[in-house]
Design brief:
8 helices; 263 residues; 41% helix; alpha/beta; 5-stranded mixed sheet
Length: 263
C-alpha cells in the first residue's frame, strides 16, 4: 500500500510518500505562484526519490493553505489535524504540538491517537511566524539559516519590545545604530518571538510532552529560548524533518482512508 500526503503552505510545499506505514521519501520546495504548481513540484521530487510514478500512489491527501488547489489529491484535510497526527505518530508521547509556519503559529493539544483536543492559532500578525525571522535576518544582513547560531553566541540579549513585525524592524535598526552586538540583537529577537509563542501555547493549555514542527523548528535558538521561557524540555523528532510533519499527517490519513475502504 503506497500513499502520499501533500502540504502546500504559505512559503513552502512538502510531499511525503508512505509504503506500508514507513516513510519512503519526502520533498520540500519553495512555493510557486500557483498552489497546483507547488504541489506538483513537491510530489515530483518525492516520487523521483522513491523511484516510482504517480500512478503507483494508491491514495493521496492534500492539506495546507493551498489544499483546495491540489489536483493530484483524492481528498483534502485541515492542516491542524494533519500536523497533530503526524507529530504524534513520530513522537507517541507528545500531547502538545507547536507548529511554527511561515505566516502563522499554531498550538495543538492532541490525545494518544493524535486527534486534536484543543488548538489556538496566531494568524493576525507576522510577528509570531517565520516571516518575522526572515525580515529580521535581512535587517541584520545575515542568512536566515545563520541567525539561530548567531543568537546562541549572545551574552546579553537586546530587549525587543515591539509586538509588530514592522515596528520591531524599526526598533532593531535603532539598536544597531546604538552599536549593540549583532549576536545580542539576534538573541533578543529570538527571545521576543519565543515569548509570543509561549503565550499562545499557554492559552491552549500546555500539556507535556511538547514538540515543535515547521521550518522554524530547525532553528536551534528558538528551541532553546522556548525551553527556557516555558520551562520544559522539547521532544525533538529523530526520524523525520520537522518541516514535513503536515504532509506526513496527510499521508497517514490517506492510509487510514484506504484501509477503511477495504480496497
Amino acid at each position: 500500500m503506497i500513499v502520499a500526503g501533500c502540504d502546500v503552505g504559505s512559503t513552502t510545499a512538502e510531499a511525503v510518500i508512505l509504503n506500508d506505514g514507513k516513510i519512503l521519501s519526502s520533498e520540500i520546495v519553495w512555493v510557486r505562484q500557483r498552489p497546483e504548481q507547488s504541489a506538483e513540484d513537491a510530489m515530483n521530487g518525492a516520487l523521483a526519490k522513491a523511484g516510482i510514478s504517480l500512478k503507483e500512489i494508491d491514495y493521496c491527501v492534500g492539506t495546507g493553505y493551498g489544499r483546495r488547489n491540489i489536483p493530484l489529491a483524492n481528498e483534502i484535510m485541515w492542516e491542524i489535524a494533519c500536523h497533530g497526527r503526524g507529530a504524534q505518530w513520530l513522537v507517541p508521547s507528545v500531547r502538545t504540538v507547536i507548529d511554527l509556519g511561515g505566516q502563522d503559529c499554531k498550538v495543538m493539544r492532541v490525545n494518544e491517537k493524535g486527534k486534536i483536543v484543543k488548538y489556538k492559532v496566531n494568524d493576525k500578525c507576522a510577528a509570531g511566524s517565520g516571516r518575522f525571522l526572515e525580515v529580521m535576518a535581512e535587517t541584520l544582513e545575515v542568512g536566515l539559516e545563520e541567525i539561530g547560531a548567531l543568537a546562541l553566541r549572545s551574552e546579553n540579549p537586546a530587549n525587543i519590545t515591539s509586538q509588530c513585525c514592522v515596528f520591531a524592524e524599526s526598533e532593531v535598526i535603532s539598536i544597531i545604530n546604538e552599536g549593540k552586538e549583532l549576536a545580542d540583537i539576534a538573541n533578543g529577537l529570538h527571545l521576543s518571538l519565543s515569548r509570543r509563542i509561549a503565550s499562545l501555547a499557554r492559552t491552549a493549555g500546555l500539556v507535556e510532552e511538547v514538540t515543535v514542527t515547521g521550518g522554524i523548528a530547525k532553528n536551534i535558538a528558538i528551541l532553546k529560548n522556548l525551553e527556557d521561557v516555558l520551562k520544559i524540555k522539547i521532544k525533538e523528532m529523530e526520524i523525520a524533518d520537522p518541516q514535513i510533519v503536515g504532509a506526513l499527517g496527510a499521508a497517514l490519513y490517506a492510509r487510514d482512508k484506504l484501509k477503511k475502504s477495504g480496497k
